[in-house]
## 1
Amino acid sequence: MEYTPDHTQSVQNILNDLWLKLQSAELIRVGKMEQQLIESHILFVSKAGEGRLMIDFHDYRLRPDAIHFAYPGQTIGVFAESEKEVELYAVRFAVLEDTKTAAVFPLAGEVPVYPEPKALLLCDLVTACFRSDQPLEHFRGQSAFLELMYVLLKKIRLLPERDPRTTLDSIKTYIEAHYQQNLTIEQLARMADISPKYFVDLFKKTYGKSCIDYLTEVRINNAKRLMLQSDIRLRDLAHQVGYSDEFYFSRKFKKVVGVSPSIYIKNRRRKIVAYTPSILGHLLALQITPYAAPLHPKWTHYYHRRYRADIPLHLSAYRFNRDWESNVEMLAHAKPDIIVCDKDSLHTREREELEQIAQILYIPGAEMHWRDQLKLTAQLLGAEHEADCWLRSYDQKTKSARERLHRELKDDKVLAMSIYKKSFYVSPARGMMDVLRRDLMLNVIPGPRPDEHRQAISVEQLADLDPDHILVNVCQEPESLGEWHHLQSSAVWRDLKAVRKNRVHLISSDPWREYSAYACDRMVDDLLMRLHGDRPNDFRI
């Protein structure tokens, strides 16, 4: 969004008719905060550190010359770009009209501002007032919040300026338009009128990746597009995207994509649809990148971040398959060849409409182990060899991880739990238990009643189980996050052996609640990282 004097005047006029009410304020210090759903307006003000803020599908760099607004129903996440945590203020507020009815706040996403030291001082004051137990301090916090909004809105940058970010944005656009040419760092640095070394450092700092990596990404993405459009020869394809050597292009493509150009082309000749995230996890293990799949920065964060450029059609990934009608409509227009479905997740009318669109391959869910699901999917798609190779590789990985974990954990008791709304659950997900018990053979605590799955438990029962390590999955919505915040302040929780020894590990729903081959593979990697010194920060918005 470009801010002009007219736009700023319009914002001011709208704000005259609105009433803004402070709800909460806090300073967040975090290395990674997975995408979570919000139920109020939030203002973000960056204080320190280098990182990125995800608001729904938009990726913003945290920096001192911009503020960010998110509104109810969006999802937000924060990611540091170095080992140092990022620090940012999150100020949550309600928006009402004079009539006390819900109103539309005129600002969203990134808003460029001139840096103002007073803004950070006001953020400190608002946060301190909100934490106070004194009602009068809460009143002062509301006043400071309105002053903060006034200061920030007065500092909106009206016109684009010639600054390093603007220059780099133009260089980035130039790369996207001229990727076929033999571009060099020296040439691009001359265009930016800075030294090559400074250009390299500034590009990496600004975009989180090197200029060469970005050029490679643009070339590979355009190669994928050309592969889908025609039967172009590999040599001609390489030349069209800026590579003079087809063999070097093939090696580069495989390094970036994970499969050779020939396998990628073979897989993309058929329009295969992964109708659920678990099916997507099986297809990726078989080196099949589908034409369509559920992708969203919260519900399927990993797949969205890594494969959104590879998968042309993004289906809704909203939980409980609530958007199935829009998915069916998209597929009807796309005319796929094959739709691979989890048999247990379809509504009757949904199944009938899908069967009118393309051939359906049904994969049993609840009654079949993920290994058998993978083998059946491979058999139906003619990828048995890929399934055998993947399972051998996975078994080797888990054997090595098992030996490593047993050396360090010995007989330590491990408890896996989840928090949803006001309840705690033990052994909450199939894949989680398969990996921890069957594949890694850890000493996993089954809970008070081993014959039950997903059983609710009290914090006092957690104390009776006496775990050495606790894996905690918190549903990323306000009520569950609030319960997690409350649990951490309870005396019973703080007295747990695992808590006292700093052996509580936050795990995300992606991959730990997905039941697929690819998700289990990622669980092993994640567990090794977390049990070898990673200590995720506890946070709440």
## 2
Amino acid sequence: MLSCSSGNKLELASPNGLLTIKLNNSENKLKYNLVENGSEIISNSEISILQNVAVKVLETKINQVNNTWETVWGQFSEIKNNYNELEVSLDYEGTPATLYIRSYNSGVAFRFKLDKSTKDLKPSYYIQYGLSSNDHIFSPAGEGQPIGPLLIGDLASTDLKKHKLKMPLLVENHQNKYLSLLESDLVSAPGFGVMKLYFDKESNVLTSNNKFTSTENNILTPWRLILVENHIGDLLTNTVPLNVAAANKIEDTSWIKPGKTLWDWRVHGYTAKDGFTYGIDNESYYRFIDFAAENDIEYFLIDDAWYTHVEPGKMTLSEKLDLDKVIAYAKEKDVELLLYYDRRQGDYGDDALFPYYKSLNMKGIKYGFMGTKVDFTRDAIRKSAESNLLIDFHDAPVPFTGVSRTYPNAITREFCHAQQDSRRAFTPKTFIRMALINALQGPLDMNNGIFDVTGVNAGKREKGPRKLNSLETTSVAEAARTLIVFSGLVCIPDAPEAYTEKSDLFEFIKEMPVGKWDESKVLHAKMDTYISTARRSGDQWFIGSVHVEGGTLEIPLDFLEEGKTYTVTYYEDTKETNSKTNPEAYQVRTSTVKKGDVIKANIVAGSGHCMWIRP
């Protein structure tokens, strides 16, 4: 596992021996190389907690861990935690520090610990990523389409003010490997902001550097991660980010329940066939609650404008509705309520906010416009947990990767362009990019599940897209997307009547046990083209696929049990389906399958395919 030789060279291999970290302490700097199966994928890269201070390796210690832990909710019910760890004692010109390196079969993790007052030291968490000039990278871009592919060899001449890099960064390696550069357990690292990525044109290398902004002793950095997979889709189910995160800090998690929620915001202005028009009023909310109760949907989310004025621990309710009656009605129907809060209404702190929400008998809060403030976000998660509230962060929040293990009440976050946000629709290509890039940071709130695609495109909603007919999707693709994008809270944005009119298609969403998965697999994935995801709950499998260009995806059912016959329901396109001109055409049919069968999922351009398989 570990070898020492002249020049203080150190090596640490993964449990299967295929991934190796090689350290070098020459020239008073600490550098690393990452080698996968004999091929170097990151070379000659500096790592430091006190940059420009000479460092020496004093001693090393090796640890081996192999255990399994149970999740509160997630893509897996239990996760194997198997790694080799190298603990490196360092001396930075009289200042002691420790570097922890963990090598998993599918990635490596780095963390520093510094036990000394930092008043005069100015620590910063600095790591270089010496990728090949032939590698390509993709980066999230807030609410815009993720950027890339950018060639590493071209970054020196690229305007990175225009193409601002963010984590999680996706790397398409020239040797057909896929990497992700990100961090985890930021929640356990007070004083550090979000990992910042940039291309250092002086050293000609991709770099991340986070300055420490506190005067506290006992500095603990986040874990910096380099995930390595042979298939791009496997990055989405890679468990290293969760394994390195701090263990669950909530003693009683019985109140934390993932699930689906209806949402009123995108439905305002929709007129049902009986002439009723949805708005911010009691009758509208009763309709949402009735549908939720009839279809076993756990939650109903009431968005902005339910209040008009904010004071610490008190809100003046809108005259448009009687919230007390809505709360009582939801309780009678056994539907839990989630309430939005827009911090732009006033910064009154959260000490009174969360107890106030709890006093209203809310199950959770959708928290908007708090920005990328790490300490604020950390406190909001902790304080919401103290009031037994789920929390869903809105509008480009801190990507607290791994936090769903530490604080499982952090149920999801909008680290993407939630569909139609800012009244802008996104394309099938943008969906694929966000599903493969933005989703690497953890649970994602994207608001998929529009069934009345034609009505939305025709502008029959107050908050439909600004440009008519700009939503390019199909009802089947929307159903598939709710499974493909992992979240502890799947927020479906359409009117109850839109789902009732397609109740046979809605069955796929209704039966899907959100967040409570025993196993998850990405069966097919190709950037800008397609993705197909399978998730198991007990002995049932749900599979969702989408295809940008259209085509046939072969889905081998080799994950089914031998000797069993399964019923499968297909939710699929018809010959008439067209994502631009006939987006709501679909068919539902039932058949039987067994292990070894190969399903040919035929998908038109911009559409999707769903399967529900059960014994």
